[in-house]
Amino acid sequence: MVSSKSTTLTNGFTSERTHKRLVTGLRRKGITDETVLLAMASIQRDLFIEDALKSRAYEDIALPIGYRQTISQPFVVALMSQILRSNRDKLGRVLEVGTGSGYQAAVLSEFADRVYTIERIQQLFDAAKLRLAPLGIKNVSFRHGDGTSGWTVNAPFDGIILTAAPAVVPINLFDQLADGGILVAPEGEEQNQTLVYWKKTHGSLRRVESVPVVFVPMISGMIS
Ligand code: SAH
């Protein structure tokens, strides 16, 4: 587990106090999985955000991370983590499509055996790798590439999480989901997306719709 260091934010608050307040807020908003709440309390979100925006790191909002991308809203990070875990005793291998800042991957690393994360934008991929190394997180594998085709050599995954929204989840990702596994994703066109998850049981998939969400779009191809 990552030890937490308190830093003073530009608004004068200590990150530790505002961080605690955020986690209390998540509980109030309906996050009940203690393992997820512990992970959210362990990972300092301000470390994933550029200096100019650090004072807002513990507000429950998405924030820009450059290249027209965003770090997701903490509530959505927690909710997707809670859905992915589904109170399983053990979460083995997780695939994340859309590394972005690396924040969701860091949260997942707290309770999954191994996280495989793919990012299509070279600069974000490089920055996320550099951010996780000093935190002592060793169970995350990074790949610069197009996540729409998954990561076949490491499949099957016990959980798959998409943090960019496709119009429709690529069908081949379901093939990379282990039996008993869960895939969670924002799905739909811009401004009209729903958080959806599927559970695979004995080879068949059950689809459940959760809440409306706003994510950046999933885009095919990669940028070097
Ligand atoms: N999970 C991130 C949020 C990232 S925003 C975090 O915690 O910060 C979504 C990210 O998905 C962006 O960085 C975007 O470049 C990436 N993305 C979009 N389409 C992709 C694709 N096909 N393959 C891999 N990454 C993709």
Describe the structure.
- The structure is a single chain.
- With 224 residues, the chain is an alpha/beta fold.
- The protein has a single domain, classed as Rossmann fold.
- Helix content is 26%, strand content 29%.
- It has six helices and nine strands.
- It has helices at 15-28, 34-42, 74-85, 103-109, 122-132, 171-175; strands spanning 63-66, 69-71, 91-97, 112-119, 140-144, 157-162, 177-189, 192-201, 204-213.
- Strands 5-4-3-6-7-8-9 form a seven-stranded mixed β-sheet.
- A hairpin with a 2-residue loop joins β8 and β9 (204-213).
- The longest helix is centred in the N-terminal third of the chain and has 14 residues, at 15-28.
- It is globular.
- S-adenosyl-L-homocysteine binds at residues 69-72, 97-98, 100-101, 103-104, 118-121, 124, 146-148, 163-164, 216, 218-220.
**Strand line-up in the sheet with most strands:** 5-4-3-6-7-8-9
Major sheet attributes: 7 strands, mixed
Please, what is the average pLDDT?
94
Give the overall silhouette.
Answer: globular
CATH classification, class level:
Alpha Beta
Number of helices: 6
Q: Could you state the order of secondary-structure elements as H and E?
A: HHEEHEHEHEEHEEE
The number of E-state strands comes to 9
Overall structural class, as computed from helix and strand content, comes to: alpha/beta
Bound molecules: S-adenosyl-L-homocysteine
The CATH topology name reads: Rossmann fold
CATH architecture: 3-Layer(aba) Sandwich
- Our estimate of the beta-strand percent is 25-35%
Low-confidence stretches: none
Spatial extent as radius of gyration = 16 Å
- Termini separation comes to 33 Å
**Helix coverage percent of residues?**
25-40%
Our count of domains comes out at: 1
The CATH superfamily is identified as Vaccinia Virus protein VP39
